[in-house]
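Lecture 7 notes: from sequence to structure.
We start with the chain below.
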Amino acid sequence: MGTGLFLVAVGAILRYAVKDTWDAVNLETVGLILMIVGVVAFVVGAIYAFSASRRRPDAVGVDRDPRY
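Predicted structure tokens for the same chain:
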């Protein structure tokens, strides 16, 4: 999820704060693409994190022999 937030932040900087021009690349488009990829990465990470916590049992019991 952290990578997604990082990509959104870098994309927003490129899209809204950088006013440099480069003939080969449109930095506003690159920023928009990074923001979209960042949001997708954040959502996928959040879904994975919350679904992993549901699959894990709350209490794991271990049967041990009382002699040991």
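Points to note: The two ends are 43 Å apart (CA to CA). The helical segments are 2-17, 27-55.
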